[in-house]
Amino acid sequence: MGRKILIIGGVAGGASAAARLRRNNEDDEIIMFERGPHVSFSNCALPYHLSGIIKDAEDLVLMNPEIFLKRFNIEARVNNEVISINRKNKNVVVKNVLTSDTYTEKYDKLILSPGARPIRENIDGLDSANVFFVRNVVDIDSLNKFIKQNNAKDVLVVGGGFIGIETAENLRKAGYNVSIVIASKQVLNTFDYDMVQILHKEIFDKGIKLYIGEKIAKIENNKAFLSSGTIIDAKVIVMAKGVIPEIGLAEEAELKIGQTGAIKVDENYRTSDKDIYAVGDAIEVQNALSHSAMKLPLAGPALKAARIAADDINGKRTFNKGFICSSAIKVFDYNGASTGLCEAVIKSQKLKINYDIVYLVLSDKVGLMPDASPLFLKLIFQVPSGKVLGAQAIGKGDATKRIDIIATLIKFSGTVEDLKDLELCYAPPFSTAKDVVNYAGYIGSNLLNKDFRQVSFNKVRELVENGAYILDVREKCEYDAGHIKGAVNIPLSELRGRTSEVPKDVDVYIHCRTGQRSYYAVTMLQHLGFKNVYNVTGSFLALSFYEYFNDKTTGRESIVTQYNFN
After folding, report:
1. Under a CB-based contact definition with an 8 Å cutoff, are residues 513 and 376 in contact?
2. Residue 342 catalytic?
């Protein structure tokens, strides 16, 4: 005699749990409830319908109730919302949202996968505006149809997370005038501020008006009035400020809620009730590096949790090491990916970690290849162990490949020495013979060994304003095409014969285009007795990307004569 297992929520976590439960056991009766009209749709792909990359909204639906029943013998009840849980009697009350009829279903095991709801700001005039959210297929279909039928050319996106940026990008590709307003100082907080400036530039260059550190005071007559006094045309407003875990059912059932405001679960995703599990965006999970509880509304973790919960229900051995927050995004021509701890999290959570940073810019493939382009990588590692804690990569090439490699290494507690030793696939169309991740290991090892000292490109403005001695070792033609104001040019090819021009009584900050030639200059000068030399990480290329957006949008004076982005 099989058990009766009910699942609340039929998208990523719920649908995956249901399928895994069936693979584990053919005898159980499995019923999945979804209050919306669709199960198993692609949340992450929703914005791509706006640009026509995904032509029909129905293409976003991966599986329908009929297929669930025929393929898995799982009953998927759409338009059915579970409105209460009775733990004592082990049943749930379900409401048919089309007829308002209610009924009761008993369970032996229950899995909660209610997801999360979009944050709605309390803004004066918002209720009378054309406001849309991006949560499901119905939402994206409604938004797409409205802007087309009403010729709504001016769209305001509120929020700069994954959904906000992807929605803005796809609306811009479709030809709309798009503005983004965010209260924080940057988009995409999975990246550190110094890295995200590359994406700020890309968003700005592609014609999206990006308002950083701004709040909306009121909405009136299809216009948004910002607290700074700026007025934005906004016939359509997309709210994408993030999500809040749907914990209403869990709270009413008196299940434990964690410190993050999400449902508390154990390593097998069992709640405080031994017969109730929870997965997906509504739960809190453990960060494998900081060992703290966190919310992680991403598809990958939801699918992993669903499998573990289904296996635990069937008495199978499970293995859960926690999560390291790996994620990726495409922003027009640039690809970004990150994993592990970023510097901002270490500082904001006041983690007691002694760390250092590798920042490098390297061609993503052999430079002779016509589509080769710079890849920017930031690596954070523990001192003195060298254990890799996190990394971020952004570029037009394959950023996800590099971060996936580093994410795998982090899961196995790898170090910068291990990065050096990784044997990776190589051919000119794919990478360089020593890949950027290998280089990150080399630089990290050199820093651990105190072979040289460095200063980050994000400190250069401060150096310039304080009159520091900055040495540019690029060739003269490069210097003439654009340089740091006040920098002295002695090309690396001439430096050995001109060392008498380099002062020994002040700190000397050396840069080139990406940091490689300047590193050679630093090691050369150190061997010649200079103890006051620093390599500028990322050098002129990283500095140009870092300074550009704020220069252009705030009107501040540039510290370079011309930018270099190639």
Report:
1. no
2. no
